[in-house]
């Protein structure tokens, strides 16, 4: 039997190298040995291949939290969601039943699909919108990691490669010791977090049962459609009429919606309350319209500026030109030209 | 929590305040069929800048009204207070039924 390697890091590799016991036997037989006949079980492999003591398998970087638990992977999915999703609405859900959830999701999907023409970009956006229940505490931790852990600032660690040479590797993933330490350092102590940090603003919201609506892009039109379904407020975001969508007025959907409460939202790292979310949803024509407005403003400002700069020189040229024509006429006319010439010197 | 004898729940809170915690948790303790069984639940969310204290107002079937102080009480003590009266009503209901 091959001697057992005791170090934990080596185990990962040895299991990868030796899926069964038979290959190890043949490997031992290949080794040059002075003895005429050695049994595989007794063969020492010290002269052969040994792993460096600080070898780390590339597929299994060291982590601060156990990497193979469901919780850790949920944390990773939340951090990636927070990094990539520009528009998140937070809802408190008070004991919705499964039937109510599916009914609410169905109505939401229907309303979002009506926003854009089928086949366009924003149609795809609507299909990616998701209303999901989150684990509040895990989301809180993920928010802390996203806010306080900067992967680009983590110093590299020196570990041994398989061949024994030293290499520099950066372990800056979300479950790493560096991420854990950064979060601990930022939230340690009694002093409150700075008001400017998104985590400090959002953390009081993360209480009780929460669900999030995620949209993969900031699209006020889609946001308005979602708001008119999930938290209708008559003047700006009216609920769909009974004639247009009878499904929305079914008691199951209505019961479910009564138990959903919009508590806040995060739009591109800015935290908004109910009114703020409504304001974002109320931007007419979306971001493109805002950009068009900006371009229009800059263009008209530029026009004004050029007109203003051009004005004096143009008027000067006009006066000089008129003066010249007058002088020309007078030169042709005779003596009066001299008089005018003196006048011109005075003015100039 | 015994919710059979509650007829009316009215809360006002600012979700961005840490003190709104117990009011929000109280809402999550109400059973899924609470509205269907005739309980009136109204929750009003205050804007973010408001400093109004969060309030919880509960009415029972026998007409008793409770104004609970959400700022100072945790969710456990609120539930304790509500259950203290609910148990009295439960006892009465059991005696009349028997």
Structure report:
The complex is a heterodimer of chains A (348) and B (98). Chain A is an alpha+beta fold. Chain A has three domains: 1-51, no CATH class; 70-284, Ribosomal protein L10, N-terminal RNA-binding domain (Alpha-Beta Plaits, 2-Layer Sandwich), CATH 3.30.70.1730; 290-347. Chain A is built from 13 helices and seven strands. Chain A has helices at 8-17, 22-30, 70-84, 98-113, 121-128, 136-148, 177-187, 198-202, 220-230, 251-258, 274-281, 286-333, 336-347; strands at 87-93, 130-134, 157-160, 166-169, 210-215, 260-267, 270-272. Chain A has a five-stranded antiparallel sheet. Chain A has a two-stranded antiparallel ribbon with strand order 3-4. In chain A, strand 3 and strand 4 form a beta hairpin. Chain A is flat, with a radius of gyration of 36 Å. Chain B has one domain (6-97): 3-Layer(aba) Sandwich (Glutaredoxin). A four-stranded mixed sheet of chain B has the order 2-1-3-4, covered by helices on one side. Chain B is elongated and about 55 Å long. Chain B starts with 5 loop residues before the first strand and ends with a helix. The interface between A and B is medium-sized, with 23 and 20 residues.
Average pLDDT rating of chain A: 82
Helicity level of chain B, as a percent range?
25-40%
Distance between the termini of chain B: 23 Å
Name of the CATH homologous superfamily of chain B: Glutaredoxin
Oligomeric composition of the shown chains? heterodimer
For the structure shown, list the relevant keywords.
heterodimer, A: 348 residues, alpha+beta, Alpha-Beta Plaits, 3 domains, five-stranded antiparallel β-sheet, two-stranded antiparallel sheet, 13 helices, flat, B: 98 residues, Glutaredoxin, four-stranded mixed β-sheet, Ribosomal protein YmL11, mitochondrial (chain A), Ribosomal_uL10_bac_type (chain A), Ribosomal_uL10-like_sf (chain A), structural constituent of ribosome (chain B)
């Amino acid at each position: 039997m091959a001697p057992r390697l005791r170090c934990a890091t080596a185990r990962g590799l040895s299991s990868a190298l030796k899926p069964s016991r038979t290959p190890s036997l043949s490997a031992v037989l290949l080794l040059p040995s002075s003895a005429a006949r050695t049994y595989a079980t007794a063969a020492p492999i010290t002269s052969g291949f040994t792993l460096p003591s600080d070898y780390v398998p590339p597929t299994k970087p060291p982590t601060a939290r156990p990497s193979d638990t469901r919780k850790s992977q949920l944390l990773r999915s939340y951090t990636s969601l927070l990094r990539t999703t520009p528009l998140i609405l937070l809802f408190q859900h008070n004991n919705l039943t499964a039937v109510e959830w599916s009914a609410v999701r169905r109505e939401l999907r229907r309303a979002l699909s009506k926003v854009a023409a089928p086949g366009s970009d924003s149609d795809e956006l609507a299909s990616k919108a998701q209303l999901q229940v989150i684990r509040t505490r895990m989301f809180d931790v993920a928010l802390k990691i996203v806010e306080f852990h900067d992967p680009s600032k983590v110093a590299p660690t020196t570990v041994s490669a398989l061949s024994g040479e030293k290499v520099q590797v950066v372990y800056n993933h979300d479950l790493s010791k560096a991420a854990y330490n950064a979060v601990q350092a930022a939230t340690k102590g009694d002093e409150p977090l700075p008001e400017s940090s998104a985590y400090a603003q959002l953390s009081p919201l993360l209480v009780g049962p929460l669900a999030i609506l995620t949209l993969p892009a900031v699209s006020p039109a889609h946001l308005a459609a979602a708001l008119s379904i999930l938290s209708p407020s008559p003047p700006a975001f009216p609920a769909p009429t009974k004639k247009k969508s009878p499904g929305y007025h079914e008691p199951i959907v209505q019961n479910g919606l009564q138990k959903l409460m919009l508590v806040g939202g995060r739009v591109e790292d800015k935290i908004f309350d109910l009114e703020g979310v409504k304001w974002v949803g109320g931007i007419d024509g979306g971001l493109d319209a805002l950009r068009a407005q900006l371009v229009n403003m800059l263009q008209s400002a530029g026009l004004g500026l050029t007109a203003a700069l051009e004005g004096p020189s143009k008027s000067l040229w006009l006066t000089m030109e008129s003066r010249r024509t007058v002088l020309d006429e007078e030169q042709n006319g005779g003596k009066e030209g001299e008089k005018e010439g003196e006048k011109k010197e005075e003015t100039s | 929590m015994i919710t059979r004898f509650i007829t009316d729940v009215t809360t006002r809170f600012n979700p961005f305040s840490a003190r709104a915690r117990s009011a929000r948790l109280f809402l999550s303790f109400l059973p899924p069929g609470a509205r269907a069984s005739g309980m009136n639940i109204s929750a009003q969310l205050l804007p973010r800048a408001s400093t109004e204290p969060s309030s919880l107002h509960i009415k029972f079937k026998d007409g008793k009204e409770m104004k609970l102080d959400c700022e100072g009480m945790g969710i456990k003590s609120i539930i304790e207070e509500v259950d203290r009266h609910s148990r009295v009503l439960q006892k009465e209901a059991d005696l009349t039924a028997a």
